[in-house]
Structure of OSIGBa0102B11.2 protein:
Amino acid sequence: MTRLLQKDVKYKWSEECEQSFQELKNRLISAPILILPDPKKGFQVYCDASKLGLGCILMQDGKVVAYASRQLRPHEKNYPTHDLELAAVVHALKIWRHYLFGTRTEVYTDHKSLKYIFTQPDLNMRQRRWLELIKDYDMGIHYHPGKANVVADALSRKGYCNATEGRQLPMELCKEFERLNLGIVSRGFVAALEAKPTLIDQVREAQVNDPDIQEIKKNMRRGKAIGFLEDEQGTVWLGERICVPDNKDLKDAILKEAHDTLYSIHPGSTKMYQDLKERFWWASMKREIAEYVAVCDVCQRVKAEHQKPAGLLQPLKIPEWKWEEIGMDFITGLPRTSSGHDSIWVIVDRLTKVAHFIPVKTTYSGSRLAELYMARIVCLHGVPKKIVSDRGSQFTSNFWKKLQEEMGSKLNFSTAYHPQTDGQTERVNQILEDMLRACALDFGGSWDKNLPYAEFSYNNSYQASLQMAPYEALYGRKCRTPLLWDQTGERQVFGTDILREAEEKVKIIQERLRVAQSRHKSYADNRRRDLSFEEGDYVYLRVTPLRGVHRFQTKGKLAPRFVGPYKIVSRRGEVAYQLELPQSLVGVHDVFHVSQLKKCLRVPTEEANIEQIEVQEDLTYVEKPIRILETSERRTRNRVIRFCKVQWSNHSEEESTWEREDELKSAHPYLFASSSESRGRDSV
């Protein structure tokens, strides 16, 4: 039929034209086997050329979107093979421009030399003209062997014989046609459309043999099943809701469709029930939906908790005497001074609240910190019985542990990622930071020069929990200041009066601290909830993406909130538990506060996939590129910019991003140490 449109061909409507016309009408009214394309995904184009025509196939995710072919024009029959194969590529780009423009496209051809068309130095005028058109597209050209490119090859050679008629010919004649190369394709890809029964059809089939449904039908005939209806196919409905039999597999299929697919994406139990109740009904439907959502592993790992934090407040025991129990912590990240100091070592007496602020360097060794500890604490107040601190590397080092063991001091560390254990020192840190900010605004100068004044001001200021200043709790009276020179006269106290007055002072302080602790616990517990686990339970562990860590263009925020589940080994105190962590988390302390845990409602049947996230010791994780999937080039007028498609940790290949190669190489040079770069160059 196409030949009749040419000028030098006499118009003659033959029997073959009539058959082709009828076949075309049948194709137009037949059900399509092509898919609808997704513009967010890339395309694959298979091209081929022969001495008769050009053939192209547009595919996406291994499925056909469109076919295209045409006969060669008279002047095109004189093209060399290289130009003819390139003409097939250009033909595909032109007719499918509305699909391919602005979308990543991979072109496959059985002519291997086309791979190097972008870097080929000598091109004829026709090739240069086509290359300008090709550069408008984000595409790569790949070699595809001719034996595998059968569909595009068949399209480029069609026109010898009608395919429908060929299938009806005797087998001997088909073989003869194939031997003579007359267009019969014996091997190729067959696109098929399989129609599966819908959920409604599955429910209809399951109702046939379900005893409960049959009982409902009997009650309907007796007039006892009010609200139930039976349609002409014998299906039982409750109003407009189909009755689902008590079949676990069928219910799971319905729940999975409403919860785990791309069209639902893990809704909550209330939303899911409202969606399903419009179409389905079965006994205890709402309860089963709530149970299904509650035990969903993905929901438990990715959804935020909208409830009070777990774990009631557990105040530390009040010390018996001054400087028997102390807390310590470091304030880091401060501006480096002329003396080289960039951190503050904060040490607080837990009874009198007296604090010492020691300027230090982050590079100080354990022996240097020990010298400062002896000079600033031990020589003034003696050796403490107990030291409360976090799990910083300075406090967990073998040197520090051995030193305190020799001195008879017991080390009490906070649970992993729970600084509230040493909340007193953390609060002093906040006060000190505010005082240093005020000094910087009012007096200027280096912060370590103002640190002694900040220490004096803090220790000589009123404390609400003590109802006196820390200096007064320690020495029996406040220190003199320029504001109150005349309020501290001379006093003469001798012998047992000094001891009796000191003991009474300590008892008063202890009682006031108990009252303050009780008041604070009542306030805190109103905003918390009691939560406990048993040994052998499985729990999820809360993790946090490291703040401020960016990919080159976007911030990674889609990783899970929890990892696990992990088994509880034992209970440590009222609100802490020891977990059985895998070998990959050997650097993380295995005792956690209950606020960092979330109960796993379904016991795992297989080992948890703990390799998904590399958790650090502070329960944070950093998203980093793990491999380069492919590379590409973008040519501008003056230069060539290379891009790499990168897969990130904690994310699948579908979430890969394109990054500039120079930025990626400077930030993550290890990606280019292997042959991953060379694997992607052929995709250009």
Q: What stands out?
A: Residues 200-294 form a domain with the Endonuclease III; domain 1 fold (CATH 1.10.340).
